[in-house]
Specification:
The protein has 410 residues and is mainly β. It has helices spanning 15-19, 54-65, 387-393, and strands at residues 21-22, 28-29, 45-52, 75-76, 80-83, 89-93, 96-97, 121-122, 125-129, 135-138, 151-162, 170-180, 190-199, 206-214, 226-234, 237-243, 256-262, 273-275, 280-281, 303-307, 310-316, 326-331, 344-345, 354-361, 370-379, 400-409. A five-stranded antiparallel beta sheet has the order 1-24-25-26-3. Strands 15-16-17-18-19 form a five-stranded antiparallel beta sheet, with no helix packed on it.
Amino acid sequence: MPDDVTARRRAGAGLGLVLALVCTAVLLRVLPPQEREDPGGCGPLTTRSWTADSALDAEFTRYGDDDTRADDWTGGDGTHSVRLPDGRVLWLFSDTYLGRVYGPPNLYGEPHAWRDTSAPLVRNSAVVMSPAGRLESTLPTPLFPDPAPGRWRWPVAARVEPRSPGSSEQVVRVLLWTRAAGAYPWIYGVPVATEVATLSLPDLRVEGVVRILDQEQVADPSRRVLFGTTTAADGRWTYVFGGDDARAVARPASQAFVARVERGRLAEASAWQYWDGSAWTSRPRPGAVLGDGRATGVGSAFTVVRDRGTYVLLTMAAGSRGLTTVTSYWACAPTGPWHGPGPGLRAPLPAGEVAAYNPQAHPELGGDGGLVLSYDVNWLDATGLAAQANLSRDVSLYRPRFLVLRLSRG
């Protein structure tokens, strides 16, 4: 998935840089302590502390730097994950580099592993991690084929659910964003549609892809809504969040939207219900749940987690802080009202003209009360002419980094 395209460009399209570019830091919002927890268990969550997840960072470095194969993952963005019933974790990526990795040192004598600038770039990939936390294999790429020439699919959130309501058989449903090649400012693609792919278990074979919400009839591409940047479950419902592409045309912030689907029916377009601002409806005319286009709003890449009765949304900031800050909001229901935003804390970045973007939570990886959060890292370049060369010169730049957050109430 991909914001603020007028502020930077990158050779080799990527979900993240079109969605939520963050120049020098990732900042996680500290929620207002003055808010009070209500009797239903909902209240603000604060970030008490955080640490870098050096084990996950090192595992992606190990796997990405392995030069024994030329058809596996060496870097990518749009990082999402889902825990499978057998304990494995399926990692999903948007634009992905394959090929071999060499060094270090690189050709310039720098202490970086590197790849040749002719390395293959595919639109999506999936990497399988063992229950013990070791990355083992890359599924055949691209996992989700292009729907037509000049169009491609970026995977976003995924969930394991019954094949149908009440079924004992489980499958993986993967939300997909379909985009099409376009002229400036749509240099990272024009939003086209939301789709859902079904993967069989345990072999992770793509059984099919269905279109859920077509947006081609919306004349203004910046008003088109793509769903699936994140999901949250509550009882019988899966809540699916989405956003528009307002930042692609330099509006200060995008808006957030939400739909809901009964568990087991994510791949049925007729089962989707959209929040229209006052009620759930089957008509695909969603109303925004967050964002005034100025002081509040989201990037197209944001993440939502549920802790007891509280929903927390992590996203890039609106307005002038949009290139430097990731904020968060909280609510007692997916439809809001959402409270926030506010200040936060910094996360580490490598040296150089690099950017962090696309914060994504991975609650299935957390242990001992911690919440794992990833953020993608890329080269920041105003013209885009040297971006691909810099990504190949230091392969660590186009890979996710991980933090463990400790949240507390009050």
